[in-house]
Design goal:
The complex is a heterodimer. Chain A folds into two domains: about 5-225, P-loop containing nucleotide triphosphate hydrolases (Rossmann fold), CATH 3.40.50; about 230-275, Dna Ligase, domain 1. Chain A has helices at about 50-60, 80, 100-110, 115-125, 140-155, 170-190, 200-205, 225, 255-265, 280-285, and strands spanning about 5-15, 25-35, 40-45, 65-70, 85-90, 160-165, 190-195, 210-215, 215-220, 230-240, 245-250, 270-275. Chain A is about 35% helix and about 30% strand. In chain A, strands 5-6-7-3-8-9 form a six-stranded mixed sheet, sandwiched between helices. Chain A has a three-stranded antiparallel sheet with strand order 2-1-4, with helices on one face. In chain A, strands 11-10-12 form a three-stranded antiparallel sheet, with helices on one face. The longest helix of chain A is centred in the middle third of the chain and has 17 residues, at about 170-190. Chain A has ten helices and twelve strands. Chain B has one domain. Chain B is about 80% helix and about 0% strand. In chain B, helix 2 runs parallel beside helix 6, helix 3 runs antiparallel to helix 6 (about 95-125) and helix 6 (about 95-125) runs antiparallel to helix 7 (about 135-160). The longest helix of chain B has about 35 residues, at about 95-125. The interface between A and B is medium-sized, with 30 and 25 residues.
Chain lengths: ~290, ~250
């Protein structure tokens, strides 16, 4: 049966040689994960965790030292595969002597797309660059360059959108607009692989997340799995010695026995509430002890 | 090939919008004007003098254009991260390489034709005849310029930009040397030196300035063989550049 995973990464390892031939630096250590058709997968990790290296391996910009990467079962180098991808790089930049319209029409020609100028105007409007279509990119801010990058990625109606920190450095309104476009693209049928530092974005829009730290896969799963299917409760008690409030989080199954135990010890329970676990908690737990 | 063609045009437009090309062109034209203004002791030799040094100036211009236009293309694309969106999706590495090369080659050819026109104007200004082989001689220099351009591309993928200039210039100088001159560098190993010289490019085949200056005719077949040689060597250098580029990790 043909492999239909838009992205399949199997036992990927990547190390870079040190200068002067003194061994090598491990950037990625044996990671494996998939992106299924039609899902939005968040790819999260600290700075230097190996996210961009993994993305560059997926795109064929870096050669894996070991392991296998396939896009719909094919090598990333194949043109039939590349034509189905949209890529938003981290900190994108473009030759600043051109305008967004020039870039879009040149990229369309290079991709063999049949779109017209009016299509590109609509696209620029969609990403919030409608008044800047003929302005030289040299006048663009970082956020505007990111918007252009998104327009170029969306130009071919890609089946897979790979985004490396697309909302980093954007203001909250622009971030919201980017999120909405990502969701729209997903509804259109595109699979999304989203690397981001902004955990609230990942938590809001992603179906699954892959957590990376120090080049290793620390956790992977659906949001429900990562955030915990079991309900957690937070109990607040007053310390007898200091009179300060002490919090304790426990699973629902242990709640009653814990309350009974605290009462037997004559501790005053001031509050019992449901504790909602955030992706940030999961991320901190998963990467504890590996902040580099 | 449509992607290569589009990317070549993009490169061409980009290079024309940068100031480098205009600066180099101005320097070459000023050098030609300076050569023409040198008084000759013998009026009958003045045409020969202007043609000889003028064509030499255009040839040096070809080297300057190759380095000025192309030495920084790939390193700059990499440094400013304009390379990533291009290579990641719409272009393969060979399409990027050929697109950049053809764009730069067209700009270089246009600039050299302008300098040839400048030389013609100088000859007309001095009321001297324009030899029929001046344009073919310029075409040969353009082909030599493409060979130099392909060399610059090879070094830009395999070394750092500061090394590109001396290495290309060194190859340019060596490529002008005859076998005898090259063997004289290390006379103790004539066989080895002769073999090395055979492998290195022979840019002397592109030089017909002396016969033109002295009014000798050049056989048309010579032009075709020289052009064919130049194009083959350029293709060889680009293949080497692509082999290096394909093996590169784009961090």
């Amino acid at each position: 049966m043909a492999d239909t995973h838009p992205i399949q990464v199997v036992n990927l390892r990547k190390h870079f040689p040190r200068k002067r031939g003194l061994g090598s630096v491990k950037a990625i250590s044996d990671i494996s994960f998939n992106v299924e058709q039609g899902e939005i997968v968040g790819f999260i990790g600290h700075n230097g965790a190996g996210k961009t290296t993994t993305i560059k391996c997926i795109l064929g910009l870096l050669k894996p030292s070991e392991g296998r990467i396939t896009l719909w079962g094919n090598s990333p180098a194949e043109s039939k595969v590349r034509n189905k991808i949209g890529y938003v790089p981290e900190n994108p930049d473009y030759d600043d002597s051109f305008s967004p319209m020039e870039y879009l029409s040149m990229f369309a020609d290079m991709r063999g797309l049949s779109g017209m100028g009016s299509d590109w105007l609509k696209l620029l409007k969609r990403v919030g660059l409608s008044k800047w279509e003929t302005t030289g990119i040299r006048q663009f801010s970082k956020g505007m360059r990111q918007r252009l990058s998104l327009a170029l990625a969306l130009q071919s109606n890609p089946e897979l959108l790979i985004m490396d920190e697309p909302t980093g450095g954007l203001d909250p309104i622009a971030r919201k607009e980017f999120r909405e476009i990502i969701i729209e693209e997903n509804k259109r049928g595109a699979s999304i692989f989203l690397s981001s530092h902004i955990l609230s974005d990942v938590e809001t829009i992603c179906d699954r997340a892959v957590i990376l730290a120090g080049g290793k896969l620390m956790a992977e799963g659906s949001m429900a799995q990562l955030l915990g299917e079991e309900n957690l409760y937070r109990i607040t008690v007053l310390s007898r010695k200091t009179g300060e409030e002490i919090e304790e989080t426990i699973p629902e199954a242990d709640l009653q026995s814990r309350i009974d135990h605290l009462r037997r010890d004559n501790l005053q329970i001031t509050r019992v509430e449901m504790a909602l676990k955030s992706l940030e908690d999961v991320f901190i737990d998963a990467t504890a002890g590996d902040s580099k | 090939m449509k992607a290569v063609f589009t990317f070549s045009l993009m490169t061409l437009r980009m290079l024309f919008r940068r100031r480098t090309i205009w600066g180099i062109l101005l320097v070459i034209l000023l050098a030609l004007a300076a050569i023409a203004s040198v008084p000759s002791f013998d009026v009958s030799n003045q045409g020969r003098f202007i043609l000889d040094f003028g064509l030499f100036g255009i040839e040096l211009g070809a080297l300057l254009l190759a380095l000025g236009l192309a030495a920084n293309l790939y390193p700059r694309d990499k440094e400013t991260r304009t390379l990533m969106p291009l290579i990641a999706v719409p272009l393969s590495r060979w399409q990027y390489l050929l697109g950049r090369f053809f764009g730069a080659a067209l700009v270089q050819a246009a600039a050299l034709l302008v300098t040839c026109l400048g030389l013609m104007l100088i000859l007309l200004f001095h009321k001297l005849p324009i030899p029929g082989d001046l344009l073919p001689a310029t075409v040969l220099i353009i082909v030599e310029g493409w060979f130099l351009l392909s060399t610059v591309f090879f070094f830009s993928f395999s070394t750092s930009p500061p090394l590109n200039w001396p290495l290309t210039t060194m190859l340019f100088v060596v490529s002008q040397m005859s076998v005898v001159e090259f063997v004289n560098i290390l006379p103790s190993a004539p066989g080895l030196m002769r073999a090395v010289r055979m492998l290195l490019p022979h840019a002397d085949v592109f030089h017909i300035k002396d016969p033109i200056a002295h009014g000798f005719e050049i056989e048309p077949v010579y032009f075709f063989i020289a052009i064919f040689y130049g194009l083959c060597y350029s293709a060889f250098m680009l293949s080497l550049a692509l082999a290096v580029f394909r093996g590169r990790d784009l961090k």
